[in-house]
């Protein structure tokens, strides 16, 4: 008798479990069908998506190459400009050093020449008086 009661209890428990599991199993089945439909739609649209992705990737690669070329061109231009400015600065220093000493020598010589001409003109003006006239003092 104990065995019959235990078997009946187990059978009722299994039956109740099956009854309560039916709605869950039906929901799982509907979800699986929806997933299958979604997977089918995704498989149909995936080639177009991949084609667009390849096109976008090609455009990005082309843009990257163009930007790299332009940056390299600008870099070369700036490097040439920098070298030119360095050359001009060095040339300016060389010219300043080369001109400074001769300029000072020329200025000193010119001052001496002006002083000599002034003295010559002053002496010449004193002696240029007419003969027989009294000297100016």
Topology of this protein?
Elements: H1 2-127
Name its key features.
mainly alpha, 0% strand, rod-shaped
Brief write-up:
By secondary structure, the chain is an all-alpha fold. It has one helix at residues 2-127. It contains 1 helix and no strands.
Distance between the termini: 170 Å
Radius of gyration: 55 Å
> Which regions are unreliable across 5 or more consecutive residues at pLDDT < 50?
none
- Beta content comes to under 5%
What is the molecular shape? rod-shaped
Please count the beta strands (DSSP E, at least 2 residues each).
0
Largest sheet: none
Can you write the helix and strand succession as a string?
H
Mean pLDDT comes to 87
Structural class: mainly alpha
How much helicity do the residues have?
over 70%
Number of helices: 1
Structural notes for this entry:
- 92% of the residues lie in helices and 0% in strands.
- The chain has one helix spanning 2-127.
- The longest helix is centred in the middle third of the chain and has 126 residues, at 2-127.
- With 137 residues, it is mostly helical.
- It contains one helix and no strands.
